[in-house]
Amino acid sequence: MTFAQPRRVDFPSSARSPRLAILRPDKDFLRLLKADRTKERSYSQSCRDWPEVKSHLAILLAPGDQQGDEGSREQPERIWGLGIVRPARETDRDRKVIVTRTRGLQGLVPASGLWRGGGERDTALYEALPESGPVTVGADTVFANLRRISPDVEAEVQRLMPLLDDAEGWTEGELRWRDERDALLLFAKITGLTNPNDFSEVRLWDRTATGAAFIGGLVGTPVQPMLDDIRGQAATRFSGIGETVVQAFASRRGNRSYDFEATSITHQSVVDGREGSLDAYYYHVDTRTLVILRYVRPDPNGLFSPDVRHSLDEVHSRVHRLPRCDRRSVDAYCLLDDPLFLRIHEPEPFTAALHRTSSGAIYPYGQVAAAFSAVASERDFPGLPVGALTRHLVPTHFAQLVRDGWFGASGVPFEAALDLVQATIDTAGVALVVVDFSLRQRGNGSGIKTPT
Q: Cα separations (Å) of 103 from 17, 33, 200, 219, 355?
């Protein structure tokens, strides 16, 4: 991502400094970062002790053979650049981290400035800094020193700060923004938007205009709802229920590679502060294909309560009462005709400037129901552990399978889908509806063509 005019971020003295980490990548890894500074790179580093899973501002130190002639005991290291790092999975020996948005500095900046105190070398601070990993001691001093090293370093810090989640925790609203952004980008891939980095509306997201809905901060084309037409129908039906935002997105190229409308509906009680969760609906008009993602977060112990099962069963019972087209084409193959899936994120923050679907997994309803049944017979059943869900789909594979027609309920009238949306708004509180108007052929699955 290119920042033409970095937004100035002012940090009052009482504000919490961003989470910092020190990394010492080798020259081969730095070469990869130089090749594409926006691509996410996986990196193994020795420190396994990351107290938070949120993103950190990474200080990347140059390898020893790139330190230059000034390397000495007084000037042992130099800073190669800055970036964003977040911890990933642990191994037996180290910790995987994901590094992205690296910013190389103009020249190799002395790292000794990081552990200065009152203009002098602070030996205690130097010894407290990690060899590799998060900075847990003296982070305020290190951050203040980092910004003072040079105007170039200060400018790079300002460019990277919007990519960090600076809050102590994530509010319910921010978590719903994350879920809605995730569903929007996932469904955009299904509609034909293969590269989210080309989705300029998301890159230009405006936090101040969001309200209760992530898509409220996008700069897509506002839709004028039209009666007796699918475009705008969801907004027309639910306009008085709370906060409704509708945007249309279409390829600006001649081939019209994607054409869809997104409508976010937030119940007034959620707008007023009640906790709510998200159900996301994808509907392909030409084949009348419906897919539903229910976004669920486990509790701090990594368990899903029995209430989660009850709510899923309730949704699924409504799904099974959907009117369906009985007559199917002889070419209508389908791997999974059930439209309901569970979406579970890894515990990561909402970061508005990282334009990607969130990491995690998507589970078919049948697998979740079977896992609940398997553990419910145990004595003192506390809930379903996340680890019990072992067979899953990564978002990209899921998007491709839906796009090709292998997943999803076909022959569903749009009005029946909106009845499900109504139930979502009444219970979960927030719904995102993406309606796909593309007329493309849909691979080898059930959506090859509309039965005649």
A: 20, 9, 22, 27, 18
Q: How many CB atoms lie within 10 A of CB 224?
A: 10
Give residues with Cβ within 8 angstroms of 380, minimum separation 6: none
- Distance between CA atoms of 111 and 410, rounded to whole angstroms? 60
Beta carbons of 323 and 447 less than 8 angstroms apart: no
To the nearest 5 percent, what fractions of the chain are helix, strand and coil? 30, 25, 45
The CA–CA distances, whole Å, from 267 to 6, 278, 421, 422 equal 36, 11, 12, 10
Report the chain's C-alpha Rg in angstroms.
24
Q: What are phi and psi of 352, to 5 degrees?
A: -60, -30
For residue 325, give the 3-state DSSP assignment.
coil
d(CA 345, CA 361): 7
pLDDT average, residue stretch 173-196: 88
User: Cα–Cα distance between 176 and 271 in angstroms, integer?
Assistant: 11
Q: Tell me how far the alpha carbon of residue 124 is from its chain's centroid.
A: 39
CA angle 264, 267, 268 (to 5 degrees): 125
Residue at token pair 């506002």: 222
DSSP designation for 393: B
The alpha carbon of 82 is separated from its chain's Cα centroid by a whole number of angstroms, namely: 22
Confidence of residue 356 (pLDDT cuts 50, 70, 90): confident
Closest among 181, 195, 103 to 349, alpha carbons compared: 181
The structure's pTM equals: 0.70
Distance, CA of 116 to CA of 105 (rounded, Å): 20
The answer for residues whose C-beta is within 8 angstroms of residue 160's C-beta and 6 or more apart is 57, 82, 83, 84, 101, 103
pLDDT tens per residue, range 250-269:
887 666 678 899 999 999 99
Give the integer Cα–Cα distance in Å for 409 and 289: 5
Q: Tokens 């004028």 — which residue?
A: 224
Q: Where are the alpha helices (DSSP H) in 212-350?
A: 233-238, 268-271, 306-320
